[in-house]
Amino acid sequence: MNNYTAVEEFILLGFSMDPGFQAFFLAFFSIFYILALAGNSLIFMAISLNSSLHTPMYFFLANLALMDIACTSTVIPKLLEGLVGKGSHISYKGCLTQIFFLTWVLGAELLLLSAMAYDRYVAICRPLHYSMLMSRPVCVLLAGSVWVISAIDSFVNTGLLVRLHFCGPNQIHHFLCEIPTLLPLSCSPTTLNNIMAVIGDVYFCVINFLFTIVSYSFIIASILRIRSAEGKRRAFSTCSAHLVVVTLYYSTVIYTYVQPGSGSSLENSKVVTLLYTAVSPTLNPLIYSLRNKDVKVALRKVFPCVC
């Protein structure tokens, strides 16, 4: 075996090192993190504590809120630690831990968006069979499968990273550890890692995206057959929020995990990653729930002095 010095920590280069920009980014990410935690926590508590919201749609929204909390908590605290002057170093084990949880949450959210698309398809295209097709056991099975399947994928990809040797350089041109940013630093062959990453991309991104598109093709066709303008408006209102989130989430994740990780795309990738690790978890409560009358009523019941 060739001699090598194992890397014990990585340096996250992140954004600009200018002190003025560091202060701006610290305030920016702190605000987004607080808003994401507060908004998603409110949504989860309102849905959990209000029996009128114990329906399939809100059950999936509660799971989405948990995923958004996990996503921001996996990335933003370490980023803030570097911005307050404690250094942008992350240990080897810390880097793999971040990759594991981030890969788990990202995969789970992509699968959950497909489950939510299926829920809307059944509600609009097969309303008479909705209570049977989206019964509580079915919803629990779908949500459980989302978490388990994404966890297995994360275990596999993280396990494949453990077998690699990292002997330098140890600088990651990003503000977090991700599979596309870590693989180029390996001193070992990464063919198997790349193959598994492609398989994961095809399943989580391509197949689920196509499933969502097909579901909404049927939904739109069904809505267009509704005669009343009010009926069309109500049907579209239940799907528009989900379409916005699907478009934002899939476009950013696909860009990060499919586009080449070199050249000017590295800087673009940082901005795009922000969209699904900080911006999207912050906006999801507003897009999905806080503008919903039922959720507002539930929030007033749970937090009368706040709402």
Automatic annotation (TrEMBL):
Domain of life: Eukaryota
S-adenosyl-L-methionine keyword on record: no
Subcellular location(s) per record: Cell membrane
Membrane disposition: Multi-pass membrane protein
Annotated keywords: Cell membrane, G-protein coupled receptor, Membrane, Olfaction, Receptor, Sensory transduction, Transducer, Transmembrane, Transmembrane helix
A matching Pfam family: 7tm_4
Gene Ontology cellular component terms for the protein in this record: plasma membrane
InterPro entries: GPCR_Rhodpsn, GPCR_Rhodpsn_7TM, Olfact_rcpt, Olfactory_GPCR
Domain G-protein coupled receptors family 1 profile: 39-288
Homology family: Belongs to the G-protein coupled receptor 1 family.
Function comment: Possible taste receptor.
Protein name per UniProt: Olfactory receptor
Organism of provenance: Myodes glareolus
Source taxonomy: Eukaryota, Metazoa, Chordata, Craniata, Vertebrata
